[in-house]
Each structure stands twice: as structure tokens, then as C-alpha cells.
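The instructor's notes for this session suggest beginning with a concrete chain rather than abstract definitions. Hand out the sequence below and ask the class to guess, before any prediction is shown, which regions might be ordered.
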Amino acid sequence: MALQLEVLKNEGAHLQVHLKHAEVGLVNALRRAILSDLPCFAIDRVDFYENTSSMFNEYLANRIGLIPLTWEESVAEDAQVTFSLNVEGPCMVYSRDLRSNDDKIRVFNENIPLIKLAADQRLRFEAFALKGTLKQHAKFQSALASYSLVPERGKASVMAEADRDDEKGERNFKENEYIFLVESYNNLSAKEQLQRGIRLLQQKLDALEDAKDLK
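After discussion, reveal the predicted structure:
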């Protein structure tokens, strides 16, 4: 039978779907595609021009690299987006203080604290964002995906409330049925991230089919 997908919860950044007639290999391949293969932008290099704060350059660069950035499909594969910051204390420096030279790619979560500067402390740098995937570095991850089995009894959408199936209290599960969860970290919804993962997985399957036909 054909794979069936039913949306149980759609809360923008969080999505829960019920997959039926799905082999575990396919479900896990979709999970891995969303986790590891979806490209996103992240700051990859920081050039410090002035840093009289209490943090080393390397520590600050690591924090800056983990700031979620927005995504835009139309941006070129080899694009490099520049972010700049020039502040002087006393103040709290937030992710929103980073200024992008491209309106399409900017800081997504603007309220992440980076560092607190005391009086007369100064921070000035340029940071450069690139496209990448989780296979290169953990900072190039824009979504989380996981799945679980569906119990024979109880509501599939409320796993914790599922009834035990026998007198021993053991739970039996439905064959080839899964609850699939997606959480998005950037401006794309969890549904869009799932759709991206499905398209990417389809491209890989098409490439495998073409390779099979080669003599």
C-alpha cells in the first residue's frame, strides 16, 4: 500500500505527523535527510578588529557561529554574507546587534545574549556566513527530526497516555506506523523543513534509480 501521512499537530515551528504503511528504513532515511542534509546559513569565520571584553576571540567566535540565521532558497550556493558589529560598553550585546549586508540572510532569533560589556570595553568585528550542512559542522543544522512507534491502543498523538496491552503491562506496537516529529530552528516552518527533506530524499532515490540503470 502507498505511504499515508496525517498531520496530528502543526504549530509552526513544531510538527507531528502520523506515518502509515512506512518501512522503518524509509522513515529513518527521512529523519537523517532533515538532520544532516538540509543546507542552511551559519557564520563560519569571524575577523576581530577590536576586542577588549572579558572573552577570548575563539570563545566569542564559537558563540557567534551558533546564532540561527534565516534561510532563502534563491541565494547562490557560493554566497558569502557579511555581518558586522561595533559596540562599546557598558551594555549587553545581543544577536540583534549584528548587521547583515543582505536583507535575505539575517539573524533569526534577535534576543540571544552574546556578551556583557563593562564601561570602556569595546567589541568590533566582521563575520562571514556560508551555506553548509550538519555533515560539515553542527552549526549548519536548521531542524530536528525524530520518530517513535505507534501503540496498538491509546491515542497516537498522545504517546504518554497510551494504554498497556496485556496483563504484564507490556506495550504492543502497530506494524509500519510511526509518529514523526519535526522542529525548525529558523524562519522556515517545520512543515517546510519536512517538505525540503522529502524533496531531497526523492532526489537521492531518483539518482539511485538512474545509477541502477547504468550498464
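Then share the key points. Residues 40-132 form a domain with the RNA Polymerase Alpha Subunit; Chain A, domain 2 fold (CATH 2.170.120.12). The chain has two domains: 4-38+142-212, 40-132.
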